[in-house]
Amino acid sequence: MAGLPLPQAGEAKKAELPSVVVAKDHNAILLHAVDEAAVRAGLSIGLPLANARAICPELTVYDADPAADLKTLNDIADWCDRFTPLVALDAPYGLFLDITGCAHLFGGERALLQIVTGALSRRGFAVSAAIAGTSIAARTLTRTASGKIVADGEEAAAVGPLPVSALGADAAVTTGLRRAGLKTIGDVASRAPHEISARFGAAFTTLLGHALGQGDAPISPRKPLPDYIVEKRFPEPVATDTVIALTLSSLAKMLVAAMDKQGKGARQLEASFFRTDGAVRAIMVETGRPVTRPEMIDRLFRERLDALNDPLDPGFGFDLIRLAAGRTEIVVQQQRDLDATIHDNDELSALIDRIAARIGGKRVVVYLPLESHVPERSALALPAQHHLAAAGAAAWPERVAGEPPLRPLRLFERPEPIKVPFATVPDGPPHQFTWRRAQHDVVRVEGPERIAMEWWKQDGASLTRDYFRVEDAEGQRFWIFRDGLYESELRDEDGKPVPANWYVHGLFA
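Predicted structure:
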């Protein structure tokens, strides 16, 4: 039977050295966190680093990293989502888990507490946890009575013997309580509330009442509670694509069945994959119309999974897969047998949803007209999933039958400069121009069309543009403009006229 290698003497000695984390506070470097060896050496949080080095010269010092601490706390919160969807941060180091109605799924409150603390301890975290009827009572117990489970109505008896420091109040309040001879929470609770409020403020009185089970402070979950949740737990981790796909399909059927009972469809769906090593991967898709068919949900997630830049990595396997409908709507029943327009709209909406699932919803846009005569500001691009109906009812200017289009089919987001060697002045078009290093000889011209800019937004730029529809010798048609009026009196250093600035703004079909 093979055994683990024992640490060498030097390694054991190094492991016993106290370690602390320091942070700067009011231009002083103070101890921010200490390990058990540092506590045995007489160090405590808040002690200046210079004093700590005097007490323990062999001290190992690390700089605090609040950003990394917050990321780790959020990662742990993601992992805790497998136990309850109501997980809230209690910064800087705590979490609240509302396990109402969830504990029986894990064998009861005691079993759930052991599962959570045991899993985190195996990953190297020092964990202190407790269960109580109020969040403040549970947090108070974690500071001095880890592992305790308190039934509803017994919070006062449970926290009464604890020191006043367990309440987590300001240091000035805790010091004032001790100087007044109130060393335990029970001592403070024995005084009349108006006496405590007069001396230590209403905020502390409220905190004390919540710790005693007299009301509770609401917690703010990190994520809004979905409208519907279905999930599948596996006795053994799964890692194959086939099992994952089959699981998503079965969950989609369960989700649709639950929504159908209330006549609703999903507009936002999220699939969460919980790995055995604690990592969590969430994939979200949105739809333009409420989805009521499981095969559509299955297809959307297949499109999304196939298009991931970072493929879904099961690692050692998933032990939980969850499908949630974050936003739902009531499905309006329509007569679909005789109205072909409704079928066309449904197919278009389904196509947009599939494309959005693959490349992202913000990349599939529709254009709505705006009241502006400036070409680049006369249309607004919006996500097609949410504005498809508005785009269908938009009133665009109608084209005159038999006449060429006034605006190009393709309009550039920003006009691109072109080189014009000469043009008919003062208001004439160019006879030749160079765009993207290609020369174009103009053979046909329509214009000019003068468009005045919005003078209150120009900030010193030109206020007029003269647009021309031009065609070159190869049959290509361009929409070009001269920026500003032609100033023939302007001359360069050699005495030659300074040409106006020309741009190409779009291409006709």
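Summary: The chain has 16 helices and 17 strands.
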